[in-house]
């Protein structure tokens, strides 16, 4: 299309728009300035009516599809259904409702709100509130200070003899490629630090526990314990990925034998984000092989990006290293952010 044809089409469109707004009187057409806002308003309302009608049709189609899906919904364990209902802040069971009815209600909410931000919550704040509620509950029921059943199995006793035994076993870690032994030593090291942390928190006074600082400390511990559970479980079973286990063995050996927290922190950074020269572990972003991508080994992979569970327990590993430095400090030249 040439420039002249383009101008002709544009003039024709403008002329047609003017004719739509023009008023005929005495054989001549003219446009009243007062009619311009009304014409624009009518055009806008007409467009909105069309959009509303289209939206109504889409909703009707979605309702038919959702009814078909709900009728064909397959059963899931009741425990999973309860968990999903609580994630959406919905009642676990309504009056006179069967398990099947509750499952259908859950499925209907999942269809109506598929993009709901499940899990987008402040986990640290939730841990703080839970810690305060537990202390208040113990005081009300008169069980404060007594030995109670824990949700997590801590190491006992937490003393220097146990720590020395773990260090002795760590001398052979990573040398013979013994997956089971390496995993158990890493597991015992982390569990010992977490158990000592828990013991120190329990020994505080009631005033300190209820203070904002005390609630913050308890919240940090609870959040780390919840996040690191999958890692400890896999370590105990010896089923941790070989690349992640390699980094964890390196961190554990550096902390227990060399007492060099700076090198351990560098090993943690390799575990978390890798040291690849391209952005955070990306080795192939298209259909073509990237030059140098064959050199991307374990140290180049950003494990923190794999999934949410790994991101959480890798962050928990960092807190374990920091607490270990607090309990067993080395020379200032070997510590991260050393403070006397």
TrEMBL record:
Keyword set includes DNA-binding: no
Main location as per UniProt: nucleus
Record domain Pre-mRNA processing factor 4 (PRP4)-like: where: 76-126
GO biological processes: generation of catalytic spliceosome for second transesterification step
GO cellular component entries: U2-type post-spliceosomal complex; U4/U6 x U5 tri-snRNP complex; U5 snRNP
Entry superkingdom: Eukaryota
Subcellular location: Nucleus
Keywords: mRNA processing, mRNA splicing, Nucleus, Spliceosome
Similarity comment: Belongs to the PRP18 family.
UniProt cross-references to PANTHER family, sorted A to Z: PRE-MRNA SPLICING FACTOR-RELATED, PRE-MRNA-SPLICING FACTOR 18
Stated name of the protein: Pre-mRNA-splicing factor 18
Organism: Panagrellus redivivus (Microworm)
């Amino acid at each position: 299309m040439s420039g002249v044809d383009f101008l002709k089409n544009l003039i024709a469109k403008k002329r047609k728009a003017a004719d739509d707004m023009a008023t005929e009187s005495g054989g001549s057409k003219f446009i009243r300035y007062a009619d311009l806002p009304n014409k624009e308003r009518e055009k806008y309302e007409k467009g909105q009516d069309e959009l509303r009608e289209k939206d109504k049709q889409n909703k009707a189609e979605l309702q038919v599809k959702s009814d078909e899906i709900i009728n064909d919904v397959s059963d899931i364990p009741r425990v999973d259904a309860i968990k999903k209902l609580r994630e959406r802040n919905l009642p676990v069971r309504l009056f006179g409702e069967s398990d099947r009815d509750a499952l259908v209600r859950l499925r209907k909410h999942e269809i109506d709100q598929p993009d709901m931000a499940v899990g987008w919550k402040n986990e640290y704040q939730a841990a703080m509130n839970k810690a305060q509620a537990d202390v208040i509950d113990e005081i009300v029921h008169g069980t404060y200070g007594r030995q109670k059943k824990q949700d997590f199995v801590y190491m006992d006793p937490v003393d220097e003899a146990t720590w020395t035994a773990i260090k002795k076993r760590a001398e052979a870690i990573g040398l013979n490629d013994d997956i089971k032994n390496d995993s158990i030593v890493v597991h015992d090291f982390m569990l010992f630090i977490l158990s000592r942390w828990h013991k120190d928190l329990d020994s505080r006074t009631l005033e300190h526990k209820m203070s904002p600082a005390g609630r913050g400390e308890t919240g940090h511990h609870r959040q780390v314990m919840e996040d690191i559970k999958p890692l400890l479980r896999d370590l105990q079973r010896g089923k941790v990925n070989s690349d992640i286990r390699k980094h964890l063995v390196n961190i554990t050996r550096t902390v227990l034998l060399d007492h060099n927290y700076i090198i351990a922190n560098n090993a943690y950074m390799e575990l978390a984000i890798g040291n690849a020269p391209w952005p955070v572990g990306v080795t192939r972003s298209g259909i073509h092989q990237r030059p140098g991508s064959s050199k991307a080994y374990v140290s180049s992979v950003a494990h923190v990006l794999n999934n949410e569970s790994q991101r959480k327990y890798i962050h928990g590993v960092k807190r374990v290293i920091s607490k270990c430095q607090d309990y067993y400090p080395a020379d200032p030249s070997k510590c991260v952010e050393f403070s006397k």
